[in-house]
Specification:
This protein has 484 residues and is α/β, with parallel strands linked by helices. It folds into two domains: 354 residues, Alkaline Phosphatase, subunit A; 101 residues, Arylsulfatase, C-terminal domain (2-Layer Sandwich), CATH 3.30.1120.10. The protein has 13 helices and 14 strands.
Length: 484
């Protein structure tokens, strides 16, 4: 590997954070998936560093996003449930950029759960979900779609049958490519780059794709055939935990859902390519650190599920790619990494002050080809269902209190099954089909001790943990959601 160059310019480097919603780590050409049409992301991976064993700290949008935005575990960031807004008082990486003299902007879906306002969370320019939709509807007037082209109905999750809101017919959104909201979003990003090209900037561009109902324009409707996909098989122990809403999906409907997702991922990749091309045209790409990731992964029929909200690997492993020409190495990192590592890494690479309290570790040694201190496990939590997940290279541990009736729409036939644990031997059972907890009590104990150590090191209520509680009782103390 050639030695990395030192910066030649005295100007501060720029930063662009590209974010997708529900983009699973396995739906990526660079991950070895030949059915994934992601040429722009694959090129980004070739030109930079791809972390192939990267995991989110919560398999649901809001907690996950705020974990990598603050550098704190969701339970410390105060955001463990979907509707919870991030407190304006919390530290963020955008605030660190602002403090260092950068112009900061965000365009797209951030799940802040409050209206945009200049200065909020450290952003000078802010066009998040509501504002983006308003501007798009005002600025872009759609052309009529030819009557022979069927398009998807209004998205009504949980009210319509899953085959409809998961787009099993693989229908396009009723707009042409240039009229799509994501295309409008790309144009706003281009305007931001044009306006700020002569001064250091930090820009977040966060796309809705490939979140259900898996949007893509009418031009893409014939791409990616459902017949090309074989839905994952259901495991022998999966029946109890399959959400009721997915139980009567046919194999053909599952194929259509998977194909719709892959088509939406292709549309996402195209729009990311346009942002990257704009950086090149403005001669900004050589002095810009680019980070691409997703909030969490997605089950496409794995264990009978078409969603995230669980601890199986397809739902918690996500893409992570970083590119900074001549400053970071090209290649893949296979060590375990977490979303909370992003904030310390970004701030370290750009030599900005760290946030006051951060739970992750900088990945800079990996990026510069130096010796790193690899994680021996990753930790993720879904407190809406009082669950926690811990994964090593060999083992996956899942704990659930089983007491909290699900409020996320994914009820099972047994809505309050009581406490349960699961242990999977990932070397022998990478699909996570066979629970071996009863045969490996020592491993269970080791995993639970790691879970408790992570909670005790990072949870704001650690001092209130009952001192005489048994190990699993102590875990149950921590998995209760406490959002304000």
């Amino acid at each position: 590997m050639a030695p990395l160059s030192k910066p030649q310019s005295s100007r501060k480097p720029n930063f662009v954070f590209l974010i997708a919603d529900d983009h699973a780590g396995y739906v990526l050409g660079a991950d070895g998936n030949r059915q994934a049409e992601t040429p722009n992301l694959d090129r980004l991976a070739r030109e930079g560093t791809r972390f192939s064993a990267h995991y989110c700290n919560s398999p649901v949008c809001t907690p996950s996003r705020q974990s990598f935005f603050t550098g704190q575990m969701p339970h410390m960031a105060g955001v463990t449930r979907l509707p919870t807004p991030l407190s304006p008082d919390k530290p963020t990486i955008a605030k660190q950029f602002k403090k260092a003299g950068y112009t900061t902007g965000v365009i797209g879906k951030m799940h802040f759960n409050r209206p945009a306002a200049a200065g909020l969370h450290g952003f000078d320019y802010m066009v998040t979900e509501r504002e983006l939709a308003q501007q798009w509807n005002e600025a872009v007037k759609p052309r009529a779609i030819p009557s022979e082209i069927r398009t998807k109905p209004q998205w009504r999750p949980f009210r319509d049958h899953a085959r409809i809101w998961l787009n099993a017919e693989k229908l396009p959104y009723a707009r042409f490519d240039e009229e799509m909201k994501a295309s409008f979003q790309v144009r706003l990003a281009g305007q931001f780059l044009e306006t700020n090209k002569d001064n250091p900037f930090a820009l977040w561009v966060s796309f809705h794709e490939p979140h259900s109902p898996f949007d893509f324009p009418v031009e893409e409707r014939a791409r990616i055939s459902p017949a090309a996909f074989v839905p994952p098989k259901i495991g022998p122990e999966d029946g109890w935990q399959i959400p009721l809403i997915f139980r009567d999906l046919t194999e053909e409907e599952k194929q259509g859902i998977i194909a719709a997702y892959y088509t939406s991922a292709r549309f996402l990749d195209s729009n990311i390519g346009q942002v990257l091309d704009k950086l090149r045209r403005l001669n900004l790409d050589e002095n810009t650190l680019i980070v691409y990731t997703a909030d969490h992964g997605y089950d496409l029929g794995h264990h009978g599920r078409f969603e995230k909200h669980c601890g199986y690997d397809p739902a918690i492993r996500v893409p992570l790619i970083m590119r900074y020409p001549k400053r970071i190495r090209q290649g893949a990192v296979r060590d375990l990494t977490e979303h909370i590592d992003l904030a310390p890494t970004i701030l370290d690479m750009l030599q900005l002050d760290p946030v006051a309290l951060q739970h992750g570790q900088s990945l800079r040694p990996y990026l510069e080809g130096r010796r790193a201190s690899p994680r021996d496990h990753i930790f993720s939590e879904y407190l809406e269902n009082e669950e926690v997940f811990l994964r090593t290279r060999k083992w996956k541990y899942i704990f659930c209190s089983g007491k909290r009736k699900r409020g996320d729409g994914y009820e099972t036939a047994n809505p309050a099954p009581g406490r349960y644990i699961r242990l999977y031997d990932l070397e022998k059972d990478p699909g996570e089909f066979h629970d071996v907890a009863a045969r490996n009590p020592k491993i269970v104990e080791q995993m639970e001790n790691l879970v408790l150590k992570r909670f005790r090191d990072t949870h704001p209520d650690a001092a209130r943990e009952p001192g005489s509680a048994a190990r699993q009782d102590s875990i149950e103390f921590y998995v209760r959601p406490r959002d304000a």
